[in-house]
Design brief:
This protein is an alpha+beta fold. It contains three helices and four strands, in the order βαβαββα. The protein has a four-stranded mixed sheet with strand order 1-4-2-3, covered by helices on one side.
């Protein structure tokens, strides 16, 4: 998706030719911010570490929101800060894409972290989990 009108384009995008054929969000987490805060909040770093654990080579959309009471560039600054955090964790730049959305409704001070997979990936994982759970519940204890 393109950034909102009046915003600069994201500085980083997936490398050419690496778009997923049928992407779906396999996992989504978010960071919450105070009004006009742009640095990664230290108490929110646990969320970022949990995303690193589930990435496993998948693409990550970093979608940053600034609410109507904030300047338009706040969304881009938040996205840039999170992007730099992932690069510092040795996440390959070609897996990261950022988007900044300004003028969101009041209280929408957040960065969404959307782990993407091929269409059906999360459904297949869910199905395997259900099968394993059914097998565990079915087998008598030894």
């Amino acid at each position: 998706p393109e950034p909102s009108s009046g915003e600069s384009p994201p500085p980083q995008a997936w490398a050419r030719g690496t778009q997923l054929a049928n992407p779906e969000v396999a996992d989504c987490r978010s960071l919450q911010y105070r009004l006009n805060e742009v640095a990664v909040p230290p108490l929110q770093e646990a969320v970022l570490h949990s995303v690193v654990k589930v990435l496993k080579g998948r693409r990550l959309d970093i979608v940053s929101f600034a609410e109507v009471r904030e300047e338009d560039e706040i969304a881009q600054l938040r996205a840039d800060a999170v992007h730099k955090w992932f690069l510092a964790q040795d996440i390959p730049e070609e897996l990261l894409r950022i988007e900044a959305v300004s003028g969101a409704e009041r209280g929408s001070r957040r960065v969404e972290l959307r782990v993407l997979g091929e269409s059906g990936e999360s459904a297949a994982l869910r199905r395997r989990s259900e099968e394993l759970l059914a097998r565990v519940l079915r087998e008598p204890p030894q």
